[in-house]
Each structure stands twice: as C-alpha cells, then as structure tokens.
Amino acid sequence: MVEIELKFQIAAPRRNALLKALDSKTSETIQLQAKYYDTADRKLSAQGVALRQRREGSQWIQTLKAAGQSHLHRFEHNLEMGETTPESVSMAPYLSHTEANQILSNALGTLDQSLILQFETDIQRTRRVVQFEEAEIEISLDIGEIRTLTDRSDVYEVEFELKSGSLQSMLSFCYEWVKKYQLWLDVRSKAEFGNLLARQLSVSPATVDKAFQFNKKESADYNLRLLVAHQLQHLLPNIAAISAQLATPEHIVQAQQALQHLHLSISILKDWSEGISSKWAAQLSAFKQHFENLQHFEHMQATLAALLQNPKTAQSLDQDILYGKEKLNNLVKSTQNVQHYLDLLMFSLASSDKVQKQDLKHFAQNTLQQQYKLLQESLSQVDLNELASLDLLALRLNELKFSFPLLTSIYDVKNLQKYSKALHDAQQAAEQYHVLSASASYLQESELEASDWFALGWLTAKQEGYAEVLLTATEQFLVSRKFLK
After folding, report:
1. Domain end: 305, 322, 357, which one?
2. Domain that holds residue 216
3. For residue 97, what pLDDT is reported?
4. Which of 128, 209, 352, 385 is deepest in the core (most CB within 10 A)?
C-alpha cells in the first residue's frame, strides 16, 4: 500500500487555534505508543526504511515504511499483532510480500538480521476526517514526545493524509491551512527524528543531488515532471533543516543548488509541458536570489577581508551577512514559498491528458538549438569596453552548463568530452567573472575610503582578464559543437 500524506510544523502562536479547529464532535483522540527497531549499525534508517510496532487503542500494529516516488508518497505495510505486547519483531510475513521483501532485502541483505529497540514515541493524536471538494482527507494533530533511554524530544505537528479522491483537492485544502495557521512543510519523519535522537544529533546530513536519467520512451511532458520531482527530492529536506534553524552551511549550499536547478528546468524547458505556470520562473528566481546574495557576501568576506582596510566597509559586510541569514530563515517557511512547494509537487505528480506528437529527442534538439542561438546573440553584443555587456553572456553559459549534459544524454553521440570541456572552460570563466563583477558593484555602492579603492581596482583588473578568457572560451565552444544540426 502507498499512502499519500503531507506533514507540517506549526508556528507556536497558532497551535491553540489549530487544536480548537480540530476539537469538534467529529474528531477522535487516541494514544499512540510506538517502538522503532533497527540493526545495531542502523541499516534500515540508512536506506530511509522504518520498522515499528505501535499500540493503537488496544491493538498492536507492526508497520514497515519506506520512501516513495516523492515526498508525498510512502510505502506502508501494516500487520496486526493482537492485544498482547509483542516480545520481538516478526519478519516472517515479509517473505511472502514481494515489495516489502525487496525493501528489507535491499537494506539488510537478509531478513535474519538481529533488530534492537532504538527509540520510542508516545503521541496523543487528535484526528478528523473532512470532505473537501473531490477528496476525503484525514487531519491528524500529533502532540507528544520521542525518547531514548537518555534523551527526549517534543513532537507538535499536523499531518494531512489523502484517504480517497483528488490529490489536487488535498493540496488546495492544505494551502488554506498553511495560510490560516502559518504551517511550514516538513518532510522529515518521526523515524528520522528518533534516529537523530538515538545518535545524539540535531540534524541529518545535507541531502545532495543524485544522477538523473531521462526516460527516452516517454514524452517530454512526462520527463519534465520526472525531473522536477527529482529536484524536489533534493530541495525539500534541506529546506526543512533551514526552516527548523538547524541547517549547516552545506544544507544552504545544497538548497541553493536545488533551487538553481529547478529554476533552470522551469525556464529552459518550459515548452515541454503546458502544465508550467508562467509565474513559477519569476518566483524561483526571486527566491534563489536570496541564497545567492548570502553566498556572495560570505565569499567576499573570505576573499576581500585582507584588502578592505576601512572598518566601516567590513562591518557593513558583516551586517549584510547577518541580515541575509535571518531573512533566509523566514523566507523558506513563508506562506508564499510553502504554496510554491505544493504547486511544484502537484505538477510533478500530475499527468497531462494531451498527447505530444513529437518525441523527447525533438524537444531536446529544439531546446539546444534555441540555447545556442541565444548564446550566439549575446556573444555578438559583447563590448570589452563595457564590461556589463558580458552579463547576459555569462547567464546564457550558466543555463547551457546545466542543460547540456541532460539534453545530450538523449542523443546517441560519442565523444562528447571535447564539447563538455569547451563548455566547462567557458562557464568557469563566466562564473569567475560574475563573482568579481558582483563584488565590484558592491564596493561601488558602498561609501569607500581611499584605502578601499585599491580593492576595487584589483577587482576591475581581474574582471578584465576573465572577460577575455570568457570570450575566447565561448567562441571555441560554439565552433566545437558539430553534432547538433
């Protein structure tokens, strides 16, 4: 069985209001006590698998859970154990269940592994089933704690589970509650929280991007939705860590990369699907800009500190970094951005009724041809006496750096290394130029003392050098790409 659910954390000032909203004649309150098991070296949790025994009323239920195709889906297998407290975990039933057996075998190797108690949960759940548009939705407010022998952690969260009907209706319903109760999306499970507590950690490592492969047999629309789902798997766990104010610098780096990839996918491949909203690219661009600003300020602090002799300039940079971090913490869980996560999730999971006449390769070729055309146009507009004229060229190279390895994977082209290297050299020069340009602009907008003009002059000289490298590398790349006709 696959369950479809979304979990949210609740802003502290809105918790009582949400509890009152659930406190009606149709709501039910139950106590849920659960025990979570794993091997001593936590092989299950390492694969995103949870095995628990939970008392629901007078009955014990053993449940196996595993990650699904998105953060909305999870595999779930339930096994009734009776009213007597189980003395051990029962693995035998999974031998005859193909999917459960495969999940456990992938994680454990064999099903005869010794499992031990890792942590327990004690939750009071208030739940209510509502009918909204074309969906039946179960709302569950969980209040309680997770505990090990030595530590405990509070739980206060709300879940929405689609019992039947339309996923779109469920997401619309969730958004109404997001606005009213200041909810923020949290893709971390109780099992993840418990495993962190057992290991005396506060946050899981940052989620990194994984390799993506197009399905050449499917349409462009299908593949774009698949790509967006893949990128959300990268983004949302890192966003959750930032929202909880537990993020390491790597969480911020990975969230920024995921946002950048999402923005490029929506912008460059927008013609692949009629389901793309015209506002998404602008929303993602504005959101990722805050990550990029913070990254740039921190880079300047690390590289220019020795050159900035005026204390006021350095102090201004420190204040910008603090403000940037505070603003980012608020933005990631803002109502507008939570709605955007839900919109993207909906797009990634939905399917189009319209049959596309052209195959995936046709769309990929058109996209690459259009990108090359835009790159050529931006190159022709460059004037080395006006360094700002390189900004558009740097942008086009960044777009192509993202799309080139993805789109060329659809072709049966050999020896792409020379094309990739030529593009890599051009994009690296563009990236260095962009960083130097942004640093110079920041200093020009500051109230510089005479001592700081040296830093600005150094930056300008470096810009000019990278501008020439950028032009040469771009020209070489445009000459090298002979495979696309």
Report:
1. 357
2. 206-357
3. 87
4. 128
